[in-house]
């Protein structure tokens, strides 16, 4: 018996599987952030919807901030998936931090799928006002000589 193949259907199936694999890989790498300065600290919001709170790990080494989290796949038995677009696995993102930040004072909270990091500006990097002395002559240091 001869079988008939449709080359366009086969090409469509192949292309769809490749595009879906790329889309899933792109989604699993996605970790969108918002970053802004508010007064004397920076605030970083990281979207981690569905991440297991116990798997969230934030580290600073030198000036590199690393954020990792994991979303576990559903392991229900007797399930027939109709759509499965939410990626699972490990998310990771690294950001290089600038100088003048108090890296030892970073705080983190995780609420409603959003990780919030508060990064204070270091004391030495904060702007400060230098008072200018007014006078007619510059002060001269007194010189004392020690007698023998």
Automatic annotation (TrEMBL):
Pfam entry (one): HSP20
> TM segments?
none
The protein's superkingdom reads: Bacteria
- Domain (SHSP) spans 24-135
- Family of this protein: Belongs to the small heat shock protein (HSP20) family.
Record-given protein name: Heat-shock protein Hsp20
Lineage start:
Bacteria, Bacillati, Actinomycetota, Actinomycetes, Micrococcales
